[in-house]
Write a structure and sequence with these properties.
5 strands, globular, 50% helix, DNA Cyclobutane Dipyrimidine Photolyase, subunit A, domain 3, mainly alpha, Rossmann fold
Length: 489
């Protein structure tokens, strides 16, 4: 239907994880179908009241929602905010507005699917793919099963979508909105927590970061393969918070990466762009895993490790959360998380490995803490990452892969630039001791006024001893599982 043949019916554009006007498949579908569109956001207490929504992420969400509200107003529309359960709120809006259909971007979490099924049972709900490039049902093995190994999934994903992405970008319809008279709730107040300056809210800010990373003569994406593991450098895109809330669409992000890949000169630049695109496919992979295996939110994907004996010492867990383990790279990461709601990905892996493999604390404790604190805490990716580190998930690291927090720091933050940025008590520690400050002579500790066990904690555990302990625990859990399986067969 052309715009000149526009319907007289009205549709609700139900905004969820797509806080943007452009590159928005749900909005475009409503416009293409000729409806008069009313933009709606439901302030769902099940999400906004969750104890897994930390103050920094909540503020970032509200700032992005406010930015979208301004963009809609500038485009001639008015965003309707309603508080309450989605089914009741949408039912009321349909009755008040006379709208006959709801358009929304499909989501794959268990809560989102149950929510949408209830709405669709009573109303005309059109779910439009947009959260991922590949729908979780699209890529399967030759046997028709969902993939469990990322590398195989990635190969098929690339064969199926790389070329089609390059050729499918179509011109968008300019968003126009119905001039309704519906009442709207107010945006909730922000929590008393500061947002990090590096993450300004809104689609415009997000696209500036995307352009800075992927465009120009020597964009950072070309150095990504080399710099991505260096927390002391600005080597990552820092786009994940915007992708999580949909201030950027995954389609435009992939297209920017592919454009950079096409412009790359030489193998090093191509490797940088390809490595970054591969990381985006990890996001698709974990969404697919959650869709097909929602049990991973509570259970180990690999049942083999269901008998792991965790220590789960609450005081030790508290010290990890506060960045007081005595291992500088781990502590710097945890302090960054507390102050900024963000942590470099390499440091996330090291910190997670330390909690699970050195301290023998259940990965679900760490997963929950990251979900609460991180700006970009995505249910699927967070769960997938923690189970990967723990060795309990699909495509997981082998249980015997245990990150050494000291050698990781020496390799990825060699001069301690990142460490000193978040651990000011170690600012005067010489490079020679920055990764193992407990080895400083007492005379040096006196000289720089940094006493181990006082200004900075002594190591909470001996890494080598902890590693041996963990190997035994994992091996025993595997043997017990196999023995139980034999007895039941």
């Amino acid at each position: 239907m052309s715009r000149s043949e526009q319907r007289t019916e009205t549709a609700l554009w139900w905004i969820r994880r797509d806080l943007r006007l452009t590159a928005n498949p749900a909005l475009q579908r409503a416009l293409q179908d000729g409806f008069r569109v009313i933009p709606v956001y439901i302030l769902d207490p099940a999400l906004l009241g969750s104890d897994r929504l930390g103050r920094v992420r909540k503020n970032f969400f509200l700032e992005n929602l406010a930015a979208l509200q301004g963009d809609i107003l500038q485009a001639g529309g008015t965003l309707v905010l309603r508080s309450g359960r989605p089914f009741q709120a949408l039912s009321g809006l349909l009755q008040e507005s006379g709208a006959v259909r709801i358009y929304a971007e499909e989501d794959y979490s268990p809560y989102a699917q149950a929510r949408d099924q209830r709405v669709a049972a009573q109303h005309d709900l059109q779910l439009v793919q947009g959260l991922t490039i590949a729908h979780p049902e699209q890529i399967r093995t030759h046997a028709g099963d969902p993939y469990q190994v990322y590398s195989y999934y990635r190969k098929k994903w690339k064969r199926r979508f790389f070329e089609s992405l390059r050729s499918q970008r179509a011109p968008e319809l300019e968003p126009t909105f119905f001039d309704h008279k519906l009442a709207s709730d107010e945006l909730p107040d922000r929590e008393p927590a500061e947002l990090p300056e590096v993450f300004p809210a809104g689609s415009r800010a997000a696209r500036k970061k995307l352009d800075r990373f992927t465009r120009g003569d020597q964009p950072p994406i070309f150095r990504y393969a080399r710099d991505r593991d260096r927390p002391d450098r600005e080597g990552t895109s820092q786009l994940s918070p915007y992708l999580h809330f949909g201030a950027l669409s995954i389609q435009e992000v992939f297209l920017a990466g592919l454009s950079a890949l096409d412009q790359a000169a030489g193998s090093s630049q191509r490797q940088g762009a390809e490595t970054w695109l591969d990381e985006l496919i990890w996001r698709e992979f974990y969404q697919m895993i959650l869709y097909h295996h929602p049990r991973v939110l509570q259970e180990n994907f690999r049942e083999k490790y269901s008998r792991l004996t965790w220590r789960n010492d609450r005081e030790v867990f508290k010290r990890w959360k506060e960045g007081r383990t005595g291992y500088p790279l781990v502590d710097a990461g945890m302090r960054q998380l507390l102050t900024e709601g963000w942590m470099h990905n390499r440091v996330r892996m090291v910190s997670a490995s330390f909690l699970v493999k050195d301290l023998l604390i259940d990965w679900r404790w760490g997963e929950n803490w990251f979900m609460e604190q991180l700006l970009d805490a995505d249910l699927a990716a967070n769960n997938g990452g923690w189970q990967w580190v723990a060795g309990t998930g699909t495509d997981a690291a082998p249980y015997f892969r245990i990150f050494n927090p000291t050698s990781q720091a020496e390799k990825h933050d060699p001069q301690g630039v990142y460490i000193r940025a978040y651990l000011p008590e170690l600012e005067k520690v010489p490079d020679q001791y920055i990764h193992q400050p407990w080895k400083m002579p007492e005379t040096l500790q006196d000289q720089i006024s940094c006493w181990i066990g006082d200004q900075y904690p002594a190591p909470i555990v001996d890494h080598q001893q902890a590693r041996e302990r963990t190997l035994e625990v994992y091996q025993l859990a595997g043997e017990e599982y196999q023995s139980a399986a034999k007895e039941s067969s």
